[in-house]
Amino acid sequence: MSKITENLIRDYRVTDGKKFRLKDIDPGDTGKARSKEEAQELLDRGIKWLSSEQEKLYATDSWSLLLVFQAMDAAGKDGTIKHVMSGVNPQGCQVHSFKAPTSDDLDHDFLWRCSKVMPERGRIGIFNRSYYEEVLVVRVHPEFLMKQKLPSELVGKKIWEDRFEDIRNFEKYQSRQGTVIRKFFLHVSREEQRRRFLSRLEQKEKNWKFSVADIAERAHWDKYMDAYEDMIRNTSTEEAPWYVVPADNKWFTRTVVAAVIVDALHALNLKFPHVDKSKRKELDAIEATLKREK
Ligand code: ATP
Ligand code: MG
């Protein structure tokens, strides 16, 4: 499994962003997948494996896993999360969606609302959007930065560089505490977004998914792409890599994301906790008592 997984994900992993160029990743790429069916089979196997591995993660109660999802609207964040985590016990998994900050959020530092809900030991935490919005939407819309009530002396030209540094340090700290971090940018093309918006408008049962605000953000496409590229260049590290996942074909996106999670958990070499001799004796005695009860 691990060689197939590695082949599938290698091309999309960024651990050192210095030379990263967004244009090198084609949103329509389907990698080395020979067919949709083959990818689907791989995804199914991945999902099964994840479900058993998550049990070990939970039982070990030591490592935790944080999955961060960022993307333009309609890139498929929600569907990917739903499919990839479909086999996982909901008790061991928490999804948090980060929308526009509340006034309480704005009264604190920008990492506050996310750091409050980092996954506990043994859990998988999923961030549907995250602190990365602070170098994306806030960068594209400087008026959002004005609302953050920062002392004006601290808002200078270096603010984005400073935020990148703060994020790198935060992620390093978290990973030293046992949180494994994997970050996904679902990279959809402008043309595919147009098609998906149109289908949300044309099909009645999809109308609810369409938001007028999405069209306003689409108008800033190039600014967003620049912000994404700069973000990936500055926050890709060995301990918290970005995966830039082609997102024009949903089946491919899901297979790659599942493979990344499989790979991350595989590297932890998880095992069910060992029961020592005295504990085994105790369990044997209880087992015998229960059997006698009948
Ligand atoms: P959906 O799939 O339901 O559309 P969504 O994640 O797009 O999910 P929305 O409520 O449509 O949810 O959008 C959330 C909005 O909140 C996004 O436009 C996002 O950029 C914005 N947002 C998130 N974090 C911040 C932040 N820190 N500052 C300003 N805006 C933010
Ligand atoms: Mg939206």
Q: What do you see in this structure?
A:
By secondary structure, the chain is of the alpha/beta class. The protein has one domain: P-loop containing nucleotide triphosphate hydrolases (Rossmann fold). The chain has 13 helices and 6 strands. Strands 1-6-5-2-4-3 form a 6-stranded mixed β-sheet, with helices on both faces. Helix 2 packs parallel to helix 12. The radius of gyration is 21 Å and the shape is globular. The N and C termini lie far apart (45 Å). The structure holds adenosine-5'-triphosphate (ATP) and magnesium ion (MG). The site of magnesium ion has 3 residues, from loops.
Termini Cα gap: 45 Å
Q: What ligand species are in this complex?
A: adenosine-5'-triphosphate, magnesium ion
CATH class: Alpha Beta
N-to-C SSE string, H for helix and E for strand: HEHEHEHHEHHHEHHHEHH
Residue share in helices? 40-55%
Structural category is alpha/beta
Give the helix/strand layout.
Blueprint: H1 2-9, E1 13-14, H2 36-60, E2 64-71, H3 77-84, E3 93-97, H4 103-106, H5 112-115, E4 124-128, H6 137-140, H7 142-146, H8 159-176, E5 179-187, H9 190-202, H10 212-218, H11 221-235, E6 242-246, H12 250-266, H13 277-292
Parallel strand pairs: 2-4, 2-5, 3-4, 5-6
Antiparallel strand pairs: 1-6
The protein binds adenosine-5'-triphosphate and magnesium ion.
